[in-house]
Amino acid sequence: MFLEFNEVGKNFADEQHGSFEVFSDINLSIEENQFVSILGPSGCGKSTLLSMVAGLEDVTQGDIQLEGNEINSPGPDRGMVFQEPSLFPWLNVKENVMFPIKKKMSKAEAEKRADHFLQMVHLSRFKNHYTYELSGGMQQRVAIARALAMDPKVLLMDEPFGALDEQTRHILHDELMKIWQETRKTILFVTHSIQEAIKLSDRVVVMGTRPGRVIADFDIDLPRPRKRDNPEVIKLEKTVMDLLEVEINKVLKEELNHEDRA
Amino acid sequence: MKIALKRLLFIVVVIGIWQGIYLAQLYPDYIVPSPFTVGETLFSGFVDGELLKALGASFKHLIIGLTLSILTGTLLGVLLGKSRQADETAGMYLIALQSIPSIVWVPLAILLFGFGELAVIFVVVIGGTFVMALNVRSAIHNVPPQLKRAARTMDTKGFELFYRIEVPASIPYFMQGVRLAWAFSWRALMAGEFLSNGPGLGYSLSFAQDYARMDQVIGIIIIIGVIGAVVDQLVFSKLEKNVMKRWGLLNK
Ligand SMILES: Nc1ncnc2c1ncn2[C@@H]1O[C@H](COP(=O)(O)OP(=O)(O)OP(=O)(O)O)[C@@H](O)[C@H]1O
Ligand SMILES: [Mg+2]
């Protein structure tokens, strides 16, 4: 299997309780070229899981394997797009995209590659701009181009469109679909939005919380582009919504109880 | 344009009041000279080259001292910023040293180096180094962790992470440090020169004091103030603002 999670668990050292378990027993097998979304209530560990695949957080139980090799540090075979702005403000757009490849090839080659990916995200016109001159949506597109420039096998995206308005988000969805079909990357996509997950993915993994775990795993075989009023889409949305509602209510109840006691 | 006008008007009024006090002859001339006498003194000082020589000497001390203090301050700051050991051991003393007014170092410098230019430069270096070190230290501590995480996913680590991310990300605080180092060095320079055997603006000031030349004293104070404001506004504030803008730290 291309990307494998075997009994993966994560503990953070906690000063008060010794150790805090985010999730445990995550088992997933992801195929090459698959577009997989991970949905789940806030705090269930989606970002943590993605960071573990990126190699930024260590795996405390089990292991994650990419093409049979255990992941234990960051590597150029995995690119990541973060929810927080992560462009380097001292570099312009093009220099940002060239950042990961500058040391790996000649300048001319790196420039050609940067131009190619900037064209893919429709930002060629802005290649000499600095980050403070870009909108949030443009910044995320640069971040996508930057991650792609490295030519990773897996593209990890942590709520990349979470901070954008509805309209921009729809445009970027279409753009991302095109990029995915063109580059055939394997994409692991974390989101809060059920619609977004169902619109984009081959497969939706739903996580629950307290304790964090996988509670459902849907294959989505509908033809693309998927319209929101497609009855099958609506049915799926409803199913996932019901599942998530239980989890979210669990969190809310716990927090409210806690408040009452405090 | 309107602001410039307001400022001009203000200075005209101040000089007017000053001239009024002078004309009222409330105080003897050697305590309150006329603003025009001060102007003449300044003018002839520039014409006969005395003031220019003093100014040149002061700038020489400043440039040498400030350069050295930026270099040593940066080295110290990077060391404390990168090494937790060093920071825990010496960080607190840096703050203590920074809080010592620079004039306190003058006797020490004079005992070490005599009344010459070396003592002055020493005081200038001490004046700027600690504030520079403190700023570089916080620059390193304040590199956004998110940028380091992003760089790590792009195969950047170790020394490469330092010079491709931490160094450029530190530049805004670094610039702030340079501006503060200049301000502290400039004050230290005057204190050092005042007690030295010259040459320099501070020395000219103490010379004017010895001969009870109030017109020269006021003239030199004006020069010192003007230079301070001009260098800060035209050089350091501008540089800092440009950097902050580019780094996205300025509210548009
Ligand atoms: N470095 C850390 N140290 C300790 N606890 C952490 C750390 N990082 C995350 N956690 C905890 O792990 C849990 C999962 O966090 P994570 O950010 O992965 O959640 P998430 O599912 O991405 O949430 P959201 O949807 O709000 O982004 C949270 O309870 C969080 O407090
Ligand atoms: Mg998250």
UniProtKB/TrEMBL annotation, chain A:
Its EC number is 7.6.2.9. This is Carnitine transport ATP-binding protein OpuCA. One of its GO terms (molecular function) is ATP binding. The complex is composed of two ATP-binding proteins (OpuCA), two transmembrane proteins (OpuCB and OpuCD) and a solute-binding protein (OpuCC). Pfam families: ABC_tran. It catalyses: a quaternary ammonium(out) + ATP + H2O = a quaternary ammonium(in) + ADP + phosphate + H(+). The keyword ATP-binding applies. InterPro entries: AAA+_ATPase (IPR003593), ABC_transporter-like_ATP-bd (IPR003439), ABC_transporter-like_CS (IPR017871), ABC_transporter_ATP-bind (IPR050166), P-loop_NTPase (IPR027417). Residues 3-234 form the ABC transporter domain. The lineage of its organism: Bacteria, Bacillati, Bacillota, Bacilli, Bacillales. It comes from the Bacteria. Keywords: ATP-binding, Nucleotide-binding, Translocase, Transport.
Automatic annotation (TrEMBL), chain B:
Residues 55-235 form the ABC transmembrane type-1 domain. Its main location: membrane. The keyword Transmembrane applies. The keyword RNA-binding does not apply. Keywords: Cell membrane, Membrane, Transmembrane, Transmembrane helix, Transport. InterPro entries: MetI-like (IPR000515), MetI-like_sf (IPR035906). Belongs to the binding-protein-dependent transport system permease family. This is NitT/TauT family transport system permease protein. It comes from Aquisalibacillus elongatus.
